[in-house]
Amino acid sequence: METFNIHILGCGSAKPSLRHNASCQVVDIRGKLYMIDCGEGAQVGFARQRLNMTRLGHIFISHNHGDHVFGLPGLISTMGLLGRTADLHVHGPQQVEALLNVALQTYCQGMEYEVHFHPIDTTRHQIVFEDRSMEVWSLPLKHRVPCCGYLFREKAGLPHIRREVIDAYGIPVSQINNIKAGASWTLPDGTIIPHELLTTPPTATRSYAYCSDTAYMPELAALVRKTNLLYHEATYPAELELRADEYMHSTSRQAARTAADAHVGQLCIGHFSGRIQDEEAHLRETQETFQNTVLAREGMVICVK
């Protein structure tokens, strides 16, 4: 099966601490790297997980708060020092462009590569990037500033050839691509061998949803329905729900409720408040509503399956 891994570089909130770095993840899909948010410590996280910066082509920013963007200037500058020549694409709310422009004009003059900014309408659920094998959708979120999450979804592949059936009917190799595309085969006597007999279904697609800072949104479950893996912020324990509402964040139980309503395969919680002293208790509280939950940890690699 092709690579689809999530690397957790940072899962804290507000400010870095001795326990956690600020928000940052890297998604590895078939060898291509995509960063989600870029808090302080992103470069160190890259080095510790032995990720190759030259394979990073796109950065997706959820919103313009420091703990999600302060790592951008340093990361962009370092890639320039390393001699990068391939263009870099940064996607995010319009407000991120001002920070990006200041960083480029102040610290990144003379680089051999270009940085392109792609503004995202955080109020819409739409495709914001795609290539031959995958697509990225924006997920409208509810925070104190324009904010969105991201849904990474593989595109459906072609069916698999049943080689033993192909050989049994003497079908030329030159026809395999046509059969994968849906064609049947007609024997010399006029008998039609249906496409369904010549193939098996394509490999099931996989998906990953990243839901950054947000107040609880019941409608979010429909947008991330049946994703294989959901990362959802759980900044506060359930007892601090009023504080979560005030600062437009989510509690452990609210994250679990979204996962349960969406029927996702697995939930990973992060963006932990410094007020959480016992993260294992935070996990147990989440698992009361959605059992298949894990805590995000720096250095963790989760395989989407």
Strand arrangement across the biggest beta sheet: 6-5-4-3-2-1-18
**Overall structural domain count:** 2
Catalogue the unreliable spans. none
CATH third-tier fold name of the largest domain: Metallo-beta-lactamase, Chain A
Order of helices and strands: EEEHEHHEHEEEEEHHEEHEEHEHHEHEE
Number of helices: 11
The CATH architecture of the largest domain can be given as 4-Layer Sandwich
Number of strands: 18
Q: Which strand-content bin applies to the residues?
A: 25-35%
Distance between the termini: 9 Å
CATH level 4 superfamily of the largest domain: Ribonuclease Z/Hydroxyacylglutathione hydrolase-like
Helical percentage: 25-40%
Under CATH at level 1, the class of the largest domain stands as Alpha Beta
Radius of gyration: 22 Å
Query: What's the main sheet like?
Result: 7 strands, mixed
Name some characteristics of this structure:
11 helices, 26% helix, alpha/beta, 305 residues, 18 strands, 7-stranded mixed β-sheet, 2 domains, Metallo-beta-lactamase, Chain A
Polypeptide structure, described:
- By secondary structure, this protein is α/β, with parallel strands linked by helices.
- The protein contains eleven helices and 18 strands.
- 26% of the residues lie in helices and 27% in strands.
Q: How would the blueprint of this fold be written?
A:
Blueprint: E1 4-10, E2 24-29, E3 32-38, H1 42-48, E4 56-60, H2 66-69, H3 72-81, E5 88-92, H4 96-107, E6 115-119, E7 127-130, E8 134-140, E9 148-154, E10 160-161, H5 163-168, H6 176-180, E11 185-186, E12 192-193, H7 195-198, E13 199-200, E14 207-211, H8 220-223, E15 229-233, H9 241-247, H10 252-262, E16 266-270, H11 279-287, E17 293-295, E18 301-303
